[in-house]
Amino acid sequence: MFILNEDSERTQGKDAQSSNITAGKAVSESVRTTLGPRGMDKMLVSDGGDVVITNDGATILDEMDIEHPAAQMISEVAETQEVEVGDGTTTAAVLAGELLSQAEDLLDDDVHPTTIVEGYYAALSMAHEAIDEIKLDEELDDDLLETVARSSMTGKGTGDVSAERLAETVVDAVRRVENDAGVVRDNITVYTQTGSSSSATRLVDGVLIDEEPVHDNMPTSFEDPQIAFVNDDIEVREASIDAEYNVSNVDDLNTAIEAEENELRGYAEHVVDLGVDVLFVDGDVADQVAAILAKNGVAAFEVGDDEGDELAHATGLSRAAGVQELEADDLGSAGSLSVEKFGDNYVTFVEDGDAGQSVTVFARGGTEHVTDELERVLGDALDVVTAALDQGGVVPGAGATEIAVADHIRSEAAGVEGRKQLAVEAFADAVDVLPRTLAENTGMDPIDALVDLRAEYESEGIAGIISEGQTGVIDDPVELGVLDPVAVKDEAVESAAEAATMIVRIDDVISAS
Q: Where does the record place the region Disordered (predicted)?
């Protein structure tokens, strides 16, 4: 009797566990060398020849063509980490892989998967306790936030601009969109444009739009413009029912044409009468309307829905459903609007808007690869500064938090009964992979460095691996300005543990043909 399709494949028991764990470990190993300030880059080449050069874990795993379902779970760990806190993706993926490796050894010793899962979740709770205990009790002022931003950029490509200057830009951007409820991260945009060095990167208090006016005779520069946004085409209205019109002579044709022209002229005059200087339209603008607007010194742009939200946050405008519904109260304003040309591209700058709730980091670079990596670096930095402000402060970086977590878990493991204690201790051993990998990537002997880290932690209460010259040293990361948000560490251990336990519990893989 056939229950499954005869072409289906089924793997059970230890074979299934081994296959899944091996796949997960392989993905984890693929990003391990990118961890830390001296981590290496990966070059990813697509089928179409597109090249991505980065050491960002989430980008690497997203670009990889991963087919194995267990391996995809590790990729999802990095994706979750990126979505939730914006950084620590490599940390989460490496930890998930090491948790799987430790679980494999326990399975070989006949420890039941459920026992491993229970032990891992017990250890996860201890890890959160340790992270909370090591959190710095300091005010999150601009200097501290800049330190967090610089730490997230360490080892990543920033072109010829220093991490210090970028960190200042990032903190400035975050502060401008901060209110009593927290940081409105969606109001910060990173806009990239090739053609200049990375040092030309700057913060724009407003919105950048990748469009030019719809008519060549429209002005391209305004001071204190009144700005409107219409959510519909500005064209001749179409009938809502199917109808045919019989034109029997030239006079009828001229009348129909005149009616259309009057309709379009009415739209344009309505905009002009309201005192609009700049009109943004989520749709098309008829040529006749554009010509009349240009004659009256009004600039019109065809944009999308996303730009409408950004403009509303920046200028305080209200989006009108159609041009006829547009009223004076719907208008917003800005300090200036200008259209600039970069190579073959036009960019419109809407700056110093009255609402002042949107800012843009205008990132420059000599090549597309540089700007792409700079965009990722800035995005991560903006996310970690936001996470530090909104989600619980900061902890020491450079592996110091992981050493504290592993030590705390081991000290608490003695109170865990039965074989579950083995899984708790294995979790602590897995956490050690992070400082060990940092040491290895920095040029230190990983075993010796781990021993020295533990000894320094026992005597001083804090110890991390600091990159220095061609190697690394054991020192206090707080004094040397290496800090990470609490949320990054919490999310990394959480997502890694969830992925590892999910994979460990699978003992049957059924795949359709």
A: 1-25
